[in-house]
Write a structure and sequence with these properties.
Layout (H helix, E strand, L loop, with lengths): L19 H16 L19 H14 L1 H14 L2 H24 L6 H21 L5 H23 L9 H30 L9 H22 L1 H4 L8 E2 L2 E5 L24 H8 L4 E5 L5 H12 L6 E5 L7 E4 L3 E5 L4 H12 L9
Parallel strand pairs: 3-4
Antiparallel strand pairs: 1-2, 2-6, 3-5, 5-6
Helix pairs in contact: 1-3, 1-7, 1-8, 2-7, 3-4, 3-5, 3-7, 3-8, 4-6, 4-7, 5-6, 5-8
Length: 369
Amino acid sequence: MAGFTLVPPQVTGRAARMPAMVRRGAVIATALVIMLLGSGQAALAHGVGGSSDTVGGFVWLGTKHMLAGWDHLAFVGGILLLAGQVRRAAKLISLFALGHSVTLFTATVADWHVNPVLVDVVVALSLVFVGVVGLRGRPKNWTWFAAAVLGFGLVHGLGLSTRLQDLGLPADGMIPRVLAFNVGVEIGQLIAVVAMFMLGDVLSHYLPKLRNPRLSHGLLVTAGVVAASILALTSPGEVLRPVQADPAVGACTVRDRTETFPFGVGHPVKSFFEPGETVPATSFGHVIGDGYVIVTYRPDLAADQLAQVRAFVTDPAAGRVVGGPAPGQAEAVKAVHAYNTAVCDTVDIDAVGQFTRDWFADPRSTPAE
C-alpha cells in the first residue's frame, strides 16, 4: 500500500520502557544466536557432552549446555524482544525457567523415556511461535502468552532431561546431580542474558539494521522452521516413533539401558582391555556421555571368541568403541550405549556391529560441544 510504513510497536511510559541497550541487545543477540544454525548438527541443540564425578561438576555441565544451546538462547532472546518491559521480561523468563526446571527434575528422577527427536522438533517450533507473535505485534492480553511460555518451558525441560539421562546417573546420587545441573542451566541462562545486552549494545553501532525487531522475529520463524525440517528429514522415523528398544539384533536382545558407570574425566588409555586387566570404570563412565559404545565380555570366553571381540573393538572402522572384561557377567557379550544395551548370550560380532552402526547413525550419538 502506497505510503504505508511498518513501525515496530512502541512502549509507552518512561518507567515501563525497556532501556535502549536492552532492546538492542535482545534484537542483535537473537539474530546472532540464530546464525549458529549454519549446519545440520546445530539443530540438535540438547546434547550434553562430557561427564563429571562430582556434584559440583554438574553445575558446570549445566552452564556449558545452556551457553551452547542456541535454541534456548534464541527463545529467551525472542521473549526479551517481545516483552518490551524489564519487569514483564523478568516474569516471562521466570516462567520459562520454572517450566524447564520442573520437567528436567521430574522426568530425570522418574526415569521418563520420551522421544528426544520429537521434543527437539517441538522446541524448534517454539521459536516459530514467538516469532509469529512478534510479527503480529505485542499481545494485548499477556496471560495466554505467559501460559504458552510456561508450556514451552516444560518441553525444553524434557529436552534437557533426555540428554542428562544419557550420562547414566547413579541412583544413589541422582537428585543432587540433577539439582546441580539445573542450577548450572540457570547460571548459564543468566550469563547469556547479560551477554546479550552487552554485546548487542556494542554491535548496534556497527550493524544498525539489526535493531529492527521485525527482522529478528522473522529470523526466529526461519530458524525454527529450518531446524524442525532438518530434524524431521534426517530422522523421519524417529519423530513419531515411541521410544522403545528393538526386540533383537541378530542373536542379541536389545533393551533399555540399565547399566551405570561411575563418573570420571578423560578417556581410557587404550580401547581394549584383556582378561585380568582392570577396566577404568570412571573413564568408561565419561565416554558413554560422549556417544561411545562400551563392549563388555565374560572373562572366561574361549580364545577364538575373545579374539573376535578384541578384533572388533580395536578395528578403527568400528568408531568410538571401547571394551573390557566384566567379572560376574553371565552373558557372553554386552554392548552398551547411552540409551540401549544389546545382550548377547553367544558371541555374535555381526549383531554387535549392527547395533553399533545403528547407534552411530542416530543424531543423538554425537553430543553438542
